């Protein structure tokens, strides 16, 4: 029978289940320190794509057996020349042409949709770090993609937090943050902060180091923010926010987010941390991250591990994370292929 590839969508629960099982097997093999592959998050990613994005799915079978899947994100509101790709092959069926077949299928779809470039991510080992497979980098290079951004995942063991050191860092940050107050919330953003948070979220791709990635700032307004929140609710994400408000203007000028999924109460992701450029130099990023870390831990007593990513060239945020106790785990590369 060989390799066959067929699209699937939210109306095909059998294909969703097959793809989920492929993803779970791949993650167990490649990233054994990750939390369990979350079925609710995966299923919701098919049924409730992020706003402003069309997601195309395809399932590959090898001799009739599900062996790999492809997910293509096609931005609709910005970056309309671009696409993101997630290509996963079950460990038992690798090196048998499944990945190449999915890649060629994806290129045909991208050309049909007028996309000029596609971005994908691989993981590899750091020097002296934990072992990671090398196949992802080799595959990306073989397709003609070029490494565009180097990132590092860092992990915090909350059981080893130095609370006295955190107290000192927070006190020092507060001393530099005169004229600002810290606010917090869980879940959806309060209406009074929504426009400012949408603005900050939209600044991320303008302010974060992107290396050679060709990616435009995203157009995020309150409507898109609310749609994102609904999509995250469908994924079962528990979200903890901390923000700094500029007292003179009442504007939210710094914001950070930690979120957890339903499959592992011991694990969280440190997501966005951003400070408006006009308000930098007051240690607001450090302050909101410390306060939010403590806020999440107060509500999640089982939480013991938090992962985050930084561009390797983002020395400022790396310094903050390492002050908090985050330590390098592995290397991640964003590859960009011109179609």
Describe it.
35% of the residues lie in helices and 32% in strands. The protein is globular, with a radius of gyration of 21 Å. By secondary structure, it is α+β, with helices and mostly antiparallel strands. The mean pLDDT is 97. Strand 9 (251-260) and strand 10 (267-275) form a beta hairpin. The protein folds into two domains: 3-115, Aminopeptidase; 155-326, Aminopeptidase. The two termini are 30 Å apart.
Supply database-style keywords.
single chain; 339 residues; alpha+beta; Aminopeptidase; 2 domains; 12-stranded mixed sheet; 9 helices; 12 strands; 32% strand; globular
List the helices and strands and how they pair.
Blueprint: E1 3-8, H1 13-30, H2 39-47, E2 53-62, E3 65-75, E4 82-89, H3 98-112, E5 117-124, H4 135-142, E6 146-157, H5 163-176, E7 180-186, H6 191-207, H7 222-234, E8 238-246, E9 251-260, E10 267-275, H8 284-299, E11 305-311, H9 315-324, E12 327-338
Parallel strand pairs: 4-5, 10-11
Antiparallel strand pairs: 1-2, 2-3, 3-4, 5-12, 6-11, 6-12, 7-8, 8-9, 9-10
SSE ordering: EHHEEEHEHEHEHHEEEHEHE
Low-confidence stretches: none
- What oligomeric assembly is this protein in? single chain
The CATH topology of the largest domain is Aminopeptidase
Classify the secondary structure makeup into a structural class.
alpha+beta
Overall outline = globular
In angstroms, what is the radius of gyration? 21 Å
Helix segment tally:
9
As laid out across the biggest beta sheet, the strand order is 1-2-3-4-5-12-6-11-10-9-8-7
Gross CATH architecture of the largest domain = 3-Layer(aba) Sandwich
């Amino acid at each position: 029978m060989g390799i066959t590839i067929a699209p699937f969508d939210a109306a095909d629960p059998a294909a969703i289940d097959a793809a989920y099982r492929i993803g779970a097997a791949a993650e167990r093999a490649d990233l054994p320190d990750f939390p369990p592959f979350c079925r609710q998050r995966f299923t919701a990613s098919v049924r409730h794509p992020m706003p402003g994005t069309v997601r195309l799915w395809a399932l590959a079978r090898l001799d009739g057996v599900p062996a790999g899947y492809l997910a293509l994100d096609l931005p609709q509101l910005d970056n309309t020349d671009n696409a993101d790709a997630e290509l996963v092959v079950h460990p038992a069926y690798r090196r048998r042409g499944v990945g190449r077949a999915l890649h060629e299928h994806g290129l045909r779809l991208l050309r049909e949709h007028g996309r000029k470039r596609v971005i994908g991510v691989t993981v590899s080992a750091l020097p002296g770090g934990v072992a990671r497979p090398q196949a992802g980098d080799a595959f990306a290079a073989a397709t003609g993609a070029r490494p565009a951004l180097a990132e590092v995942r860092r992990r915090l063991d909350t059981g080893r937090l130095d609370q006295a050191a955190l107290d000192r860092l927070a006190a020092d940050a507060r001393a530099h943050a005169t004229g600002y107050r810290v606010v917090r919330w869980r879940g959806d953003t309060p209406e009074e902060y929504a426009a400012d948070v949408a603005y900050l979220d939209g600044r991320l791709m303008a302010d974060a180091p992107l290396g050679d990635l060709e990616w435009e700032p995203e157009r995020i307004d309150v409507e898109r923010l609310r749609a994102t929140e609904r999509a995250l609710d469908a994924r079962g994400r528990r979200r903890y926010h901390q923000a700094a408000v500029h007292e003179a203007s009442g504007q939210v000028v710094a914001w950070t987010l930690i979120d957890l999924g339903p499959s592992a109460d011991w694990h969280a992701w440190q997501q966005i941390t951003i400070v408006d450029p006009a308000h930098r130099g007051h240690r607001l990023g450090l302050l909101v991250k410390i306060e939010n870390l403590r806020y999440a831990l107060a509500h999640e007593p089982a939480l013991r591990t938090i992962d985050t990513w930084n561009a390797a060239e983002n020395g400022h945020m790396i310094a903050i994370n390492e002050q908090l106790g985050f330590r390098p785990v592995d290397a991640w590369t964003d590859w960009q292929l011109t179609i």
